[in-house]
Amino acid sequence: MFRNFSIALAAGFFLTAGLANAKQTVPSNLAGGLGDLVASNVALKINKGLRGAKTFKADDGRVYATEAAADFASNATTDENGRFMVRAHLSGLLGFDRVQALAKRIPSFTVTAVDRNYKGGVLEGFIGIDNVPALAQMKGIRSVMLELKPELTRAVSKGIRPVGNAVPGQTLGLLGTAFDQGVTQHRVDNINRFYNPDATFDYEGSGISVGFISDSFGNSANDVANFDLPGAGGNPVNTQPVVVLQDIPGTDEGRGMVQIGYKMAPKARLAFATANGGEVGFANNIRALAALPGFAYDPSVQQGFAANVICDDVGYSDEPFFEDGIIGTAVDDVAAAGVSYFSSAGNDIGSYDYDSDYRNVPNTPAALNGTNINLTGVPTNLYQGGFHNFNPNGQDVAQTVNVTSNPPATNFQWDDPYNQTVSFDTPAIYTAHGTSDGTTTTPSSFTTPVLTAGQNYVITVTADPGSGFDAIVTIKDPNGNIVVNMQDTGTDETVNFFPPTTGAYTIIVDIFGNSTGAFTVNVYTGNNPQITTDFNILVFDLDGNYLPNSSLVTDNYATNVPFEYGKTFRKAGQTQVQYVISRTSVPSAASPATHIRYIIRGNGGSGLGPAEYFAYNTPNTHGHSIANGCNGTAAYSVFRPSQPEYYTSPGPAVVYFDKMGNRYNPPQIRLQPGVAAADAANTASFGGDSTSDVDTNPNFGGTSAAAPHAAAIAGLVLEAHGGPGSVTPAQMTDLLHRSAFPHDLDPNFSSGSARSTDGGKISITFQSDLGLNPSAGVNDPNAFRVSYVGPGALTSLVFNPAGTAATGGNVTGGNSGVDSTNTFFSNVYPGEVFEPNTKAFTKGNATGGVVAADASAAFSNQAPAPSVTGQWWTMTLTFANGNFTGGSSLGFTVGRGPQHASVVGNGAAFNPGPTGGVTSTSYVMADLFGGGVLIPEGTVTTNGMTFSGTTSGGTFSGAMRNRMGAGYSVTDGFGFINAEDAVAAPVQ
Amino acid sequence: MKSILISIFSGLTALMLAHSASAVIYTEVGDAGQSLGTAQNTGAGVVQPLTSIFGSLLTDTDIDIFAINISDFASFSATTVNTLTGNLDTALFLFTSAGLPVYANDDDAGGMSVGSTLPPGNPLGPQVNGLYYLAISLSGAEPVNFANQLLFAMGNTSTDVRGPNPIATGGLSDWDTSLVFGGGQFPAGYQIDLTGAQTVVPEPSTYALCGLGVVLLLLAMAKRRRAAAQI
């Protein structure tokens, strides 16, 4: 998110002419915040000795010129010497070995990992900030990205979760000190004789090797001694120590993952490798765990380990949304070698994000109609190509977005290819020569032959052998308009260029510094897909004023990635900002980008997301978890109700490009996440204690915890089918898809429909998630929608008219788990209550004859304890004046929640009921009103909350439902894995 | 069995009538299937304008699919006529020849009828002439792909005309009837009025198979009758 240096000036204090020179020292091919850091570094050096300058401190104590730079520094991967980890992507114009040799001359640059095969190749390593420009300007380097810290998918615990229990009365074996409830939820206890001596089969992972990747593993001595990890001589099931290929200090989340794998497949051989070494390091550790030739560690470290199954819970912020990146390629490599791979799908709530085809509004004054956006202060080159229309049924180029005071970064991407190499046909269609005397070039400009609009051309300006010339390139179209402005990425310049109109173009060569010497200008016909569009997110406050330090405006032609990233800080005193998505120019490529998406990575947190134009299941799972060789893994809490976690990242994934950057036509739709598994189960060392179980062990939440559960089950499947190699990765994926419990196929949605005795039809739709986006969930005034078709009018609608728990929905509410004697219990406490005290009955949009004033709500049938006064079983809606005629509909919302939460209190004595936990005021999801599947029993209940009512000439009754069954759902893929079924399922 | 035979003969009659009429009304023969492979053609002999389809849903989860030729996509429409059906709550779906979703409707625009209409000139409607498949079901049934994803996008209300679900790939694989709330008496007859459509006639070999089927059916009935007489 390098906001160009002039923006940094606006934020700070550097208003001297001398800074014009500083700008020249910030190459434009720095991405992922690296430009901000270099600009800050330059500014501080120039400003040295000045007083009164406002500076910002990063987490490591170092000072930066801008808040954005300090934030990037805090989130960057650094070494003990304060050097930043970067990835240098090669242009493809020089051989890999040649570039690697040249890179050794860059002071302070230490390469830690290389990838020869990803696009033009990648060098990853640590570098001092002073030397970043030299690396970026080095021959053979196309762009340099800051390597931010990896993102773990351990969820932020909301702390409010209805509790649950698993084959009642069954006392299970306890391995170590913490019982992993995933064992019972996945029905592993029915196929494992350590936990259950009466199990029909005994699959414990014997002969199977499972690898884990996370941030760090740390000191495992206590876990080993307590049998929460294998390796101790006296361990009852497994004396093989965990193999650690590489560890870098972190939160030791990886050890929590390995504990899960061990509890699910106790006799498997396990290994760990870190993902903290950058994307290339991560990718190479995937290959190392699989012992791929050339990637395995020294035999003394590797110890012969070769994984049959691998899982991870890490993502990097700049992993692509719409294609396979560095890590995804490694996943596919090991899958091709026979390894089944699992990765956390992510903890990003769908309503936090925005995904749309790009709808252009040309850059005219009318573009801003209906908004208060004031473009004063916005560089005009940032929006010459027009604006995105957020309103599919009208025009609105501004979107109101909820942000917290220190929000997570917004990650904005579109369907252009990443890190494409430069490739062109030879010979050049135009060649010319010039010289520089240090002040002027001769000639000062060059006129190309006629160039065809939309065709890719590559223009190079290179210093001749022995010349010290360093070029800055500007290109003008036949009408004299600037189409490439002052590109300065290195000593030589390479411009990927799509002429907007057919005609002869002018290339103007300026001098960087006082460099002198001869140079050559070549124009080639390009033959490789490239970045076609430079999008930006311009951020404004609620009064319409531009917020430059919150805006994401990198030059994507220079960074060579369709990626904008950074925090969109709000104005003090406001809780929202406005996003305007713009293009720097009208794309002239034959197939420009057409699809945009941004993700605000909440990781289960609250207070974020679009206040308008949002959808509950906006797809956001991305990165390597969508690779073809990966089983992206969604999460279900081990506690009831039995449904996907509210934060698990929705799919599917849409992939526009192959690994060479060629566009798929049509794009691939990948059904990710593919599977779902347990989270929030006990571990011995990682997470915080849940109030939904009776023990005090830490519970590990998030899709991070789901992935190792799923991976371990894959190990059991391999064992059951004959050991390593008995099931290919593709067969494993298919088998697990077929072995899931039935599930809700329309997540965050339930519906009901009924015919009245006089021939009318009443339809109710209900869409809502947990509402961590403050504009969604219970605050969405159109969460419920009632519509009517038929004669006369709808006059009343009563939810749960019988006023009982059994007719109140939430059919999988209750408690399940193990008690203090490790005995399994399973109690169901159904029923949703209405809570107008937490959210009053609020009307939304009305269509047809009905108007909001016609509707009123009354509440009756006070729910018994644990509900409190004002929590009702029954809500009666009355529609006055006969206006709710055929074709009418009305939206509304109201407070609601499960009558029984599952909270039992930390360390409280086991007390599963009969009243269970207190009534929830936060679980407002639509799915709780419909039917469900009880896990681990697998019992399907079709109907949820009942309803009845009257029309002007008849009566009706019905029930809310979810679409239940087998198949793909956007939140939990093909569903929560039933391990008992999986080990028995035939390979197909 | 008797009702099936009646359907067969009425269908054959309709097919024969088709040869001599400038526009035809097709009557379902037996039970039209719910897949492309078991869909019924809507004519015989030569291609002719198709103005109506008569048929019946045998149960609340029955779906009937018919092959039709859209000869004028701009004027194509399909409408269920409820005066015949006792206010049957239908839904109509149009698929391409490959089973890909085109558009669908549950309840007529205006909200006064639970009948269904695929309107003419709708931007979601067919854009080229050719072979299509028209499906009718009770409200609540939805076509799904291989992964049980809905093929059509959900609407805000039942009167919406709905287009393809953008995140579902592939064509018709099955039907999800879990949200059919049912009710009514079955079998329930229906009438679909069409504009801009023509019949789809079977290949000659299909006639032969159809005839063979009828012969086998009659033989089976005769055998069963003889067996019953022996008891």
Overview features:
heterodimer; A: 988 residues; alpha+beta; disordered N terminus; B: 231 residues; 13 strands; 20% helix; globular
Describe this structure in words.
The complex is a heterodimer of chains A (988) and B (231). Chain A is α+β, with helices and mostly antiparallel strands and 988 residues long. Chain A has a 7-stranded parallel beta sheet with strand order 10-11-9-12-14-34-37, with helices on both faces. A 5-stranded mixed beta sheet of chain A has the order 1-7-4-6-5. Chain A has a 5-stranded antiparallel beta sheet with strand order 21-20-28-23-26, with no helix packed on it. In chain A, helix 3 (34-46) packs across helix 4 (67-75). Chain A is globular and about 90 Å long. Chain A starts with a helix and ends with a helix. Chain B is built from 2 helices and 13 strands; from the N terminus they run αβββββββββββββα. In chain B, strands 10-6-5-8-3-13 form a 6-stranded antiparallel beta sheet, with no helix packed on it. Chain B has a 5-stranded mixed beta sheet with strand order 1-2-12-4-7. The relative contact order of chain B is 0.20.
Taking the alpha carbons of the first and last residues of chain A, their distance comes to 47 Å
Total strands of chain B: the figure is: 13
The proportion of residues forming helix of chain B, as a percent range, comes to 10-25%
- The low-confidence runs of chain A, each spanning 5 or more residues with pLDDT under 50, are 1-24, 157-166, 906-910
Backbone structural class of chain B: alpha+beta
By helix and strand content of chain A, what is the structural category?
A: alpha+beta
Give the spatial strand order of the biggest sheet of chain A: 10-11-9-12-14-34-37
Give the overall pLDDT of chain B as a whole number.
Answer: 83
